[in-house]
Amino acid sequence: MTEKTKTKATKAPGSATLGERISGAFSTAADEMRASANPESKQHAEQAAKTSGGRRPRRARLRLTRIDPWSVMKTSFLLSVAFGIVTVVAVFIVWSVLGAAGVWESVDQMVADVIGGESTTNFAIEDYLGTSRVLGFTMLVAVIDVVLLTAIATLGAFLYNMAAALLGGVELTLAEDER
User: Which InterPro entries match (predicted)?
Assistant: First the structure.
């Protein structure tokens, strides 16, 4: 007797949990599908099962037919907010490093050399591209990105649901680890 039939023989019918019944049905269906698909692969699978400790990894073929748009919207919103925060922090760090490295003074000096004259002595690039202006613009872009990415992801879920209704969805094959 195999390990499956021993456990089935010792339990009363109907005493198996839902998870055991589902996994049993999946493994039986997968075994039947493999056996009917290729008789040589059945022999190879049986030989591999004997050498790997007697247990083959179970496989289940599932079809993704619907994605919940509300779930997609919540998840994409949170990921978009995280992306926006990372963007603002990255721009602040880059802007601070450029300021500490003296890039803005070099730009001021270059503009004074190119234009020349006394009117350029008061020129400062930070008057036009200051840290507060750049961070304000970055926050505006981050907020727009949050709205757009959330809307596009939710729209994508609706479009996938319509396409899956027509075409059947994406087919996945799930398998256990071979440990």
Answer: DUF3566_TM
